[in-house]
Specification:
The chain is built from seven helices and 19 strands. With 297 residues, it is an alpha/beta fold. Strands 1, 2, 3, 4, 5, 6 and 19 form a seven-stranded mixed β-sheet that branches. A five-stranded parallel β-sheet has the order 8-15-9-10-11, with helices on one face. β5 and β6 form a beta hairpin. α1 packs parallel to α2 and α1 packs parallel to α7. It is elongated. The two termini are 21 Å apart. InterPro entries: FAD/NAD-bd_sf, FAD/NAD-binding_dom, Ferredoxin-NADP_redctase_2. This is Thioredoxin reductase. Keywords: Flavoprotein, Oxidoreductase.
Amino acid sequence: MYFDVIIIGGSYAGMSAGLQLARARRNILLVDAGERRNRFAASSHGFLGQDGRDPGLIATDARAQLERYPTVHWLNAKVQTAKQIERGFSVAVGAGELLKGKRLILAMGVIDQLPAIPGLQERWGKSVFHCPYCHGYELDQGRIGVIASSELSMHHALMLPDWGTTTLFTNGAFVPDADQSSQLRARGVVVETVSIREIGGERADVVLEDGRVIVMDGLFTLTQTSVPAPWAEQLGCIFEEGPLGRFISTDVVKQTTAKGVFACGDAARAAGSVAFSVGDGALAGTAAHRSLMFDND
């Protein structure tokens, strides 16, 4: 089948884009590798109508609703290549099976790279987070640590006192200057300059190199993010440099710099959340539909 639109990525942004196209009775294919970014988290917050639910259940329900539309096709596979052809795009999956579509929507998300601290990765999404709006409230105004990954962590440290008693662990990532130190004091942030040996305990105990253990109810850190495939660039998509990593540049309706290619969700934002991804996907889906109707090139 020659699809109207192939959507790469079947998480929140991809499914939201697919829903708009399904309701326009377009034949679409979602290709998903099953690596949803928030798969490590037990609950999702800040998405209206779904607050506090298991993010996996949100995704499962969304897929079930989407697949009720007869023009929706789903393939559990990893995309190997994507390239432009005469009448649209060719996508190779698995061992090389070729799929073709008139339009392409990139919704493959990003990969998070955490600071290299023992014990941090296994607590990611459970007691170590990146978004205060998504997870700060549940810490119940408790003891919150910010592990610096760069000077950008100042933003985290200045935000988080609204959610609890905050300690900034500079961990050799940067040294606050006089003005920054003044800002931190004004917000009641404690600064700990001794480097971190590991994260231990049931939740998020910070073990310092001098042997001290500082008990925390939760930790926040800024990850470095990357789009997990080279073919966005190969398709001609231009990237922007964000504070956390590169992301695909789009216009206000999620059209990339490559004609016929749209992008949405975390791969096409400087920072994201479930709510942002769903909105992004809706924009990309409707824009792709309009291009099918009105763009005859």
